[in-house]
Design goal:
The protein is of the alpha+beta class. It has helices at residues 2-34, 61-72, 91-98, 111-115, 127-143, 149-167, 177-192, 202-218, 221-228, 237-262, 272-285, 295-326, 328-341, 356-369, 400-404, 447-464; strands at 75-80, 83-89, 106-107, 174-175, 375-378, 383-385, 388-390, 395-399, 465-468, 482-484, 488-490, 494-499. The strands form 4 sheets. A 5-stranded mixed β-sheet has the order 1-2-8-5-3. A 3-stranded antiparallel β-sheet has the order 4-12-9. The structure holds protoporphyrin IX containing FE (HEM). Residues 122-123, 134, 304-305, 308-309, 312-313, 316, 371-372, 375, 398, 400, 436-438, 442-446, 449-450 line the site of protoporphyrin IX containing FE (HEM).
């Protein structure tokens, strides 16, 4: 009897097993035949644990990603360690994904971002928090002059300060990085806090220097390794340094916010922080408390605007000066156009339309500087894009550098060639593949501010100085190869700023 039961049990188990396999097999056939769109993007074969990490050159990962797109197409799968990621390359694909599609507007929740508690604010938040904070920041920055004449005045005043600092070097070679960073950070300080700082103010200097260090650490290979293998690499030094640096920065921001709160006059807002605090009070008074207006969202939005707005802009500006020293004949043409159209008066934003060569030089500088070579999003839902199935929550790399360096688009892709942005008659010409600020609903929030800053700082400096390599260094020796971090920055270099007599 027992043997009979055992046989029956065995028979039932085997039948169950076979039927389960059959059902799964049929389901597989049905799913793969009825929905061919579920084909995931192709890509290099991953090796266990490391995925495709060995294909990336740490000195220029964005270049390696672009090369892979030539083999696997503009939508491909890449394994960063065990993490399956989709890469989008080429300007047409990027525009189609970001402008004509709403599935890629979320940010990926990277381990380091969670550690730094950066999921509030603007840059790394999603959903209602992102919508409310981005909208509020945009309207507040516009109110304080972003893209307007009042802001133009602030930038012109700051450019005068920068000119004075450059003049103090009396033509001797100096490192442009600190003064340029202080000038650019002061513009953000004016918009956010309603005040600028002297370049020798110790608190200001350490705030800016720390923000730069944090951005570099964030993009360092060891922090990237930690993002791919959070359990294995939580001990890396760069991560711990970043946690310490970010916490020191947050503390400083909290102190400044506290002092602004103590002197707040809701009828006379000085900047973004005052607007936020005033809006919060109004909501409380009207009983319509919006849960987004809390300290974390305020502090992190402030930190976000400093980190997103300073490094990228100062890197582009430093590149513009380095390029002038490297290509003196282009500098000649810039200065000739300035002399012909502006003379010795202060350049203004409205002059831009009359300065097509300078406009082309600035666009070409941004193309070559490639300050933000990629941005990482995440699929907010299951989506089929260009025939490829991308599962919800898959990280999506938007490879902006692949548009800026798309070989089929740019006549001289790897040279500095302002003609890319000029027509046969010397008029400025827009290019579709020019995407340094990204595109769509989650593009750069500070684009109009950055464009205004780069134009006014560049023209004011070029009006006052001739930029040359340090004595003993040839133009050919000036190296444009960037240092790779969260943003790309020019390698440490010195330049001479020789005063011109206007
Ligand atoms: C040359 C200068 C700049 C460049 C090249 C640049 C580029 C970018 C890029 C590529 C993104 C990513 C967009 C995406 O994910 O698709 C971004 C985001 C952002 N940028 Fe800029 N940026 C610059 C200057 C600024 C400035 C001056 C500000 C100041 C307010 C700023 C604030 C932001 C913010 C807050 C975001 C996050 C937007 C969001 O997630 O909704 N940027 N920027």
């Amino acid at each position: 009897m027992a043997a009979m039961e055992e046989l029956l049990l065995h028979f039932t188990n085997t039948t169950t097993l076979i039927s389960t396999f059959l059902i799964l097999f049929i389901l597989y056939l049905v799913s793969s035949s009825s929905s061919p769109q579920r084909k995931e993007p192709p890509g290099p074969r991953p090796v266990p644990l490391l995925g495709n990490l060995l294909l990336l050159d740490p000195k220029s990962p964005h270049t390696a990603l672009y090369e892979l797109s030539k083999k696997y197409g503009p939508v491909y799968t890449m394994h960063f360690g065990p993490k399956k990621t989709v890469v989008l390359a080429g300007h047409k694909t990027i525009r189609q994904a970001l402008v004509q599609n709403d599935a890629f507007a979320d940010r990926e929740a990277l381990p380091i971002i969670s550690d730094l508690k950066l999921t509030h604010g603007i840059v790394f938040s999603n959903g209602d928090t992102w919508k409310e904070m981005r909208q509020f920041a945009l309207s507040s920055l516009k109110q304080f002059g972003m893209g307007k004449r009042s802001n133009e005045e602030k930038i012109i005043e700051e450019a005068q300060n920068l000119i004075e600092v450059f003049q103090r070097n009396q033509g001797r070679a100096f490192d442009t990085s600190q003064p340029v960073s202080y000038a650019v950070s002061n513009i953000i300080c004016s918009l956010i806090y309603g005040q600028r700082y002297e370049y020798d103010d110790q608190q200001f200097r350490s705030m800016v220097d720390q923000a730069i260090t944090n951005t570099q650490l964030m993009g360092s290979p060891s922090v990237q390794l930690y993002n791919s293998f959070p359990r294995l690499f939580s001990w890396v030094g760069a991560r711990n340094k970043l946690l310490e640096g970010a916490s020191a920065n947050r503390k400083r921001v909290a102190e400044i916010i506290k002092s602004l709160q103590e002197t707040l006059n809701p009828h006379m807002c000085r900047g973004f922080v005052d607007s936020f605090l005033t809006h919060k009070i109004k909501l409380e008074e009207s009983g319509k408390m919006n849960s987004q207006y809390h300290d974390d969202n305020l502090q992190i939005s402030v930190v976000n605007m400093f980190s997103a707005g300073s490094d990228s802009t100062s890197s582009t500006l430093r590149y513009s000066l380095l390029i002038m020293a490297k290509y003196p004949e282009i500098q000649d043409r810039v200065q000739m156009e300035l002399a012909r159209v502006i003379g010795s008066r202060q350049p203004r934003v409205e002059d831009r339309k009359d300065l097509p060569y300078i406009d082309a030089v600035i666009h070409e500088t941004q193309r070559i500087a490639n300050a933000v070579p990629l941005t990482v999003r995440s699929a907010s839902r299951d989506v089929t894009f260009q025939g490829h199935f991308i599962r919800k929550d898959t990280p999506v790399v938007i490879l902006l550098s692949s548009a800026l360096q798309e070989e089929a688009e740019w006549e001289k892709t790897y040279s500095f060639n302002p003609d890319h942005f000029l027509d046969e008659d010397g008029n400025f010409k827009k290019r579709e593949a020019f995407l340094p600020f990204s595109a769509g609903s989650r593009n750069c929030l500070g684009e109009s501010l950055a464009r205004m800053e780069i134009f006014l700082f560049f023209t004011s400096l070029l009006q006052h100085f001739r930029f040359t390599p340090p004595p003993g260094v040839t133009q050919d020796e000036l190296d444009l190869t960037p240092v790779v971090g969260f943003t790309l920055t020019p390698a440490m270099h010195k330049l001479c700023a020789i005063s011109r007599h206007l």
